[in-house]
Amino acid sequence: MCNERYVRQQSFAPIGSSGQALLHDKHVLIIGAGALGSGNAEILARSGVGKLTIVDRDYVDWSNLQRQTLYCEQDAKEQLPKAVAAARRLRQINASIQIDAEVLDCTAVELIRLVEASKVDLIIDSTDNFSIRYMINDIAYKYKIPWLYGACSGSYGVMCSFLPHQQTPCLHCLLSSMPVSAANCEINGIIAPAVQMVVSLQSAEALKWLTGNEESMSNSFRVFDLWSSLFQTIQISSSLRQEQCNTCGNDPSYPFLQEVASMKTETLCGRSTVWIRPSRVSPLDLEQVIESAQKRSSRVTSNPYLVQIHEEEYRLVIFKDGRALIHGTADPLLAKELYYRYLG
Fold this sequence. Notes:
Rossmann fold, TATA-Binding Protein, 2 domains, eight-stranded mixed beta sheet, six-stranded antiparallel beta sheet, 12 helices, ThiF_NAD_FAD-bd, sulfotransferase activity, Thiamine biosynthesis protein ThiF, ubiquitin-like modifier activating enzyme activity
């Protein structure tokens, strides 16, 4: 490794050589490899974090390239899973760190597996889904792992740090109940500067924690709207912690880690697409899927991670673990019918 690689970062007094050494021994789990995830992953890889685990269920699409900085046109042409494309690019940026790509749906079972398999020092939320955020919230407080919440839509963004060992109120305490809906870039659009602002806030908090500068971390909920030049900081008081909270209260039950084993469907916000996750996730023989699909459809393409099937106005993208995106419909029942047509 070039001795000059981190010299500018080490020259920053709060980090120094001791902070850089701490950074090299840390493991960060990034949930989501879209705009926020790819931005955070690149900054942390360049900064010298020892290990990054990147989790994402989706593949690179042309609409991602406007703001998701790790990806290029070739990734979209190949329809590479985002976690795989991100890992490939990050290894080109910094070959001296460990990067693990996990192409999977972020379920409670998978989250528990990931945090128990290898010590995780920090979790970064880079999702656009509150059900997953509540799972991250539960796993973080159960295993006492700090986590960074971030979200953006349009020109708006929010960011907040949660430190379970400090007995801080959790996300559930702050938001009180699961929101019925949330701002989403599929509906409201997104400008890249809003993404980069949230990434900057999250990655700065990450560097503080990972280099032993906990005292410098923010204890506020930060909100901004770049288009209207609005910046607001809301201080988080320990009094907001609810003693009856099922996540951070006196007798936690971590309800969002208690999954029911059944097929899950989700109509993606603002898109005629249904996401399907089977009750049991197990590896598919993609060659068999291709052979079966070619009997029904003349338009079948694939790569080592997924098979794409065109049927009339519908497009099915089937992943190696049995998950699927059904494009062209927002009807879960029709999506299931198409899914079972090819996977029984």
